[in-house]
Design brief:
SH3 type barrels, ten-stranded antiparallel sheet, single chain
Length: 183
Amino acid sequence: MNMEKLFRDFEVQIKAERQKEIELDARELQRAEYARIQHLDRLAAQLGQELTVAVEGAQVYTGELQALGSGWIQMRSQTENVLIPQHALVWWEGGSRFSSVDAGSVKRQLTLGYALRALSSARLPVRIFHTSDSLTTEGTIERVGLDFIEVAVHGIEGNFRSKHILGYRMLSVSQIGAVCSAL
């Protein structure tokens, strides 16, 4: 038996084993790094991208992701602006599969409560989709409490006046699936 050939074969085997270990380590490192990415980090990387988003209550919206806040996202479709509480987000698709950024670097500091207060201050007519039973409430957000909103119920088409208000409805913030306003 030729010892030189035996040693060479053995060295090739050792190199191949080391290469396999390096590749396995690299894959494991990649998995470990991916495991540290948070959902909002992936979503934050999609700002400005066209996404399709599903929320509790079976609503699906397609539009450009325009803002990310503390507990909410805001999208713009061809016909409306949509504010979606993070707790109601079921899934999303679109954008880039391989990108992520630190959500803290791009998200607005406004909480969901402050975003709802901004809508209230603007007196925008809104359609609110609830997270259950496909219920909706149409009207204007009058006031925002700690965990609820008060809505003056009226149609959202055309101009409204106090005589058009049908009543006032209290909604639990935890039951809001989406808040939509016309462009």
